[in-house]
Amino acid sequence: MKIEELNHPETPISLREINKKIAATLDSASDSRFSELQQLIIDRDVFITAYLENLDAQDKREFAIRELDVNNSLKDIVRKMLEDAKDEVTHFVRSKSAAEKYK
Prior knowledge:
The chain is mainly α.
């Protein structure tokens, strides 16, 4: 996911920093990327929740509408990562089972 997909004109600087870290983590091949991503998404949620409390009704609505699109994109990416991980585990288990048959 590109950083441009995470930010919009109403994205505050602090949220841009979190989004930058999320984009870098998604591009990473690190073994710890899943736990890092989980923590960054929690940080993002906490920030957005607090930020929304400080906005007036109109700004809150505009910000929430834009963030909904970003959130849905993140959700789709994480869902795909989960499906890929499940596929890898399934493939590993089947390969292990097949290998044990030939011992």
